[in-house]
Structures are given as structure tokens and as C-alpha cells.
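Q: I'm building a small set of examples for a reading group on sequence design. Run inverse folding on the following structure and report the sequence directly after it, with nothing in between.
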């Protein structure tokens, strides 16, 4: 076993001590983050509102009103951005027929997700990242497909974030592939994201992470009058429903109930998002979604993928799922006038910085293991090199078992490291680090007996 002091590693930082924080920004990502524009976001949302309603069951043939015209417009925007992408961005409406379900679909439905794929430039890298928002909107009655349903925040905000990321990122190249998608059918029971998640699973895409944006552009809450545009919530499930049998026993035995794939992604979003976006705190919420609500990350989580939901800190229920009306002097409805485009800019930038950092990074280290052959007060980790990407080295992340976030980070050029900290007392994970310092998602070690 190599001794610690012989290894070329550097103790980089104590993440939980602000004074010691090192903000090391990738200049390319910093530049992209600066390009995120509140004005662009506002223009997208104003245009989306002009389709009158984007209800999933609204017309798909009307050229001006309804979900059909809206999805064609999203693809048209993607195609506009594609002109500056050197042929790497391509877009289409991915359609499927959904049969009536006796609940929220009352007639055969032509459902379409507006998708754009920014092809990765490394042919040996098959990783895929997805960012989504939902194009469909609704009013008080979920089956009402004719009334005006502006859907500025729910979920014009998510679709605008998707478009803005596509606009900026498609002029850059990444080793991995990024998919920008405005799904449909969210309000009718997550049909569009369910269709996409099933396709990803069946076709065995190497999906590394999925970011769902839904209701993330307004800063005020109903009932409490709180205004907050400095915090963004990230919802993540602890472990996947696929963690059954032996996998679940392993989680119990090792105390890994807070280290599932979605939770790791959420921690990554907090660290990287806060690295690039000033005056914004990413708040980790330890549950998959809010009470009584659903979201497009869930079909992905249910299939074992790392997927999280971004939502504003406080919600205003007068402006969600409401008929547009004035009642007792109160304006109801999801109108653009209730949006905070500067807040939406920051939340969009969190998405962009995380997508860019993951897609620029090498793929995750392989076969990460912690040695438990002997009783000892040290921790020996070993792993195999990333499958794709140019690797500079690896970070070993460490935290106390009660800490929500990683607290220490060690760097090594090797594929093994022994630390003078007991594996019994801390959690560990390993990340690949690329030549421009972008980190992969962390991998929790499995036990090597
Ligand atoms: Zn929504």
C-alpha cells in the first residue's frame, strides 16, 4: 500500500469553510454564463404566451393557436440557433400517439416533444445530458383545452431556459452530447417525459444526468408575501426505486441512504451552480418533488437515471393552474407580468454551467472501490480510468456522515489513494477531472472484500 505522503496529491480546499473557498472558474463556461440574457428569456416567454393555450389536447394543426404551433415554433428557434453550430445542432418534433386513458386524455392524442440534439465531438464519448422544460400549459380545469392558458412561469420559464441554453451552448463544442427538450403532456400525467425516458432506456442511451426545469422564473409566493430571488430549489430523490433486494441491503449496511444518483447530481449542481452564478444559493431539498405535484424528472428517476427538478424557492398558487381572471381584486393566472427575468437568468445559468461542466469533463471513473479487506484507521480507494475524455487526475471527495455536502477534496494523478481518515467515519466518492479542470459526477465506491 502506498503511503499518503509519497503521493502527488494536494489538499485543495475545505468546502464548508467560506474563507477557504477557492472559486476556480473555467473561462469558457464563465463566458457562456455571461451570455445568458434576461431579455432573451423574456422574449421567448412573451412569444410562448401568444399561442393562447399550449394545452396538450389543444390543436396540433392550427398555425397560430395551440400546442402544435408552439412546438413548431420551438423547433424553428432551435433551427435558427443551429445555423451557428457548424452542423452539430439538429432539431425535430418527436411525436407519438397516446391512447385515451380514461383520466386526463379523452381522445387519441398526437403528442410531440420539441427536441434539439447538440452532437458531442468526441466519437469515443457516448454520454448524453438532457435539459428539459414542459411546453404544455393549463388552467383551473385540467381538461380545458380552449381557454387562454398563458403558462408564462409553468412552464414558459423552463422552456425559455432550455432555449437560452441551446442558443448559447450550440456555438460551443463539447465531447459529450447535450439534448435540449420542451416536452408535452406534463400536466396530463407526464406523458412526454415518460415517452422520452422509456426511449432512453430501451435504446440504452448512456444518459449521465437529466435536469428538469419547472416553475423557476418567479420570486413571489402566495399567502406569505415572501420575495426571494436569491435561492433556487433542487429536488432530488434519495435512492432509486430500482434499489431493491441486495442493492437495498447494501444501502442499509453502508448507510448510503443519502448517496443515490439523483442526490449526487443535486450536490454537484449546488457546488458547480454556485461556482458560476453569483448571488444565488442552490438549496438541496431531500425529496423527489413537492406534495401533490409531479415533474418530468420522475419518469427518469423511476428508470434509475440521475435526474433532478429545479423550482423557484417560493411558489405563488394564484398564478399556477388558474383561469385568467380578477376575483375580489386579485389577478389570477400565469401571466408574464409576475415573472422575474433576472431571477430566471440566474436559474438558467445554473443549468448551463452544470451541463457545460459535465459535458466538458471526462466520463466517470470506473469500478471505484473501497478496500475493506483489513481493519484499519485509513481509507484506501482505487478505481479504473475514465472510458472517455482527457483525464488530468481525480478528486476524492470526503464528508462526515452527517454532512449534506462534500467537505474536503483531494487531488491525485493516480488511480488509487490512501487517506489517513477512517472509512468508518466518513463518506467518500471519486470524480474524474479533465485537463481544463471540469469534474465528472462523483461515484460512490463499492466494497472490495
Ligand atoms: Zn409545470
Amino acid at each position: 500500500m502506498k503511503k499518503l505522503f509519497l503521493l502527488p496529491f494536494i489538499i485543495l480546499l475545505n468546502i464548508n469553510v467560506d474563507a477557504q473557498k477557492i472559486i476556480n472558474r473555467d473561462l469558457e463556461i464563465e463566458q457562456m454564463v455571461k451570455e445568458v440574457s434576461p431579455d432573451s428569456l423574456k422574449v421567448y416567454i412573451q412569444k410562448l404566451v401568444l399561442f393562447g393555450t399550449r394545452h396538450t389536447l389543444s390543436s396540433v394543426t392550427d398555425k397560430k393557436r395551440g400546442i402544435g404551433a408552439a412546438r413548431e415554433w420551438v423547433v424553428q428557434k432551435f433551427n435558427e440557433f443551429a445555423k451557428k453550430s457548424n452542423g452539430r445542432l439538429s432539431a425535430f418534433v418527436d411525436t407519438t400517439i397516446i391512447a385515451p386513458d380514461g383520466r386526463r386524455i379523452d381522445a387519441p392524442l398526437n403528442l410531440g416533444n420539441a427536441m434539439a440534439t447538440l452532437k458531442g465531438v468526441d466519437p469515443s464519448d457516448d454520454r448524453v445530458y438532457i435539459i428539459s422544460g414542459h411546453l404544455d400549459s393549463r388552467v383551473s380545469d385540467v381538461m380545458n383545452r380552449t381557454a387562454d392558458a398563458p403558462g408564462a412561469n409553468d412552464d414558459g420559464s423552463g422552456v425559455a431556459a432550455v432555449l437560452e441554453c441551446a442558443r448559447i451552448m450550440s456555438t460551443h463544442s463539447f465531447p459529450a452530447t447535450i439534448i435540449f427538450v420542451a416536452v408535452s403532456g406534463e400536466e396530463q400525467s407526464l406523458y412526454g417525459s415518460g415517452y422520452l425516458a422509456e426511449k432512453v432506456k430501451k435504446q440504452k442511451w448512456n444518459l449521465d444526468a437529466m435536469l428538469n426545469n419547472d416553475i423557476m422564473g418567479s420570486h413571489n409566493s402566495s399567502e406569505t408575501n415572501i420575495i426571494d430571488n436569491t435561492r433556487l430549489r433542487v429536488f432530488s430523490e434519495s435512492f432509486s426505486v430500482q434499489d431493491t433486494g441486495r442493492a437495498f441491503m447494501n444501502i442499509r449496511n453502508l448507510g448510503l441512504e443519502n448517496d443515490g444518483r439523483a442526490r449526487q447530481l443535486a450536490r454537484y449542481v449546488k457546488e458547480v451552480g454556485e461556482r458560476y452564478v453569483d448571488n444565488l444559493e442552490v438549496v438541496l431539498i431531500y425529496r423527489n418533488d413537492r406534495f401533490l405535484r409531479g415533474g418530468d424528472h420522475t419518469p427518469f428517476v423511476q428508470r434509475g437515471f440521475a435526474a433532478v427538478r429545479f423550482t423557484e424557492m417560493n411558489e405563488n398558487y394564484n398564478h399556477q393552474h388558474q383561469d385568467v381572471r380578477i376575483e375580489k381584486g386579485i389577478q389570477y393566472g400565469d401571466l408574464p407580468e409576475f415573472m422575474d427575468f433576472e431571477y430566471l437568468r440566474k436559474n438558467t445559468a445554473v443549468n448551463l454551467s452544470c451541463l457545460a461542466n459535465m459535458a466538458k469533463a471526462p466520463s466517470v471513473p470506473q469500478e471505484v472501490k473501497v478496500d475493506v479487506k483489513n481493519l484499519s484507521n485509513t481509507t484506501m480507494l482505487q478505481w479504473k480510468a475514465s472510458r472517455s475524455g482527457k483525464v488530468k487526475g481525480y478528486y476524492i471527495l470526503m464528508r462526515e456522515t452527517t454532512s449534506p455536502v462534500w467537505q474536503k477534496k483531494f487531488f491525485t494523478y493516480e488511480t488509487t489513494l490512501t487517506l489517513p481518515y477512517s472509512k468508518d467515519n466518513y463518506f467518500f466518492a471519486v470524480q474524474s477531472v479533465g485537463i481544463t479542470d471540469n469534474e465528472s459526477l462523483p461515484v460512490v465506491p463499492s466494497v472490495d472484500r
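The first strand starts at residue 10 and ends at 14.
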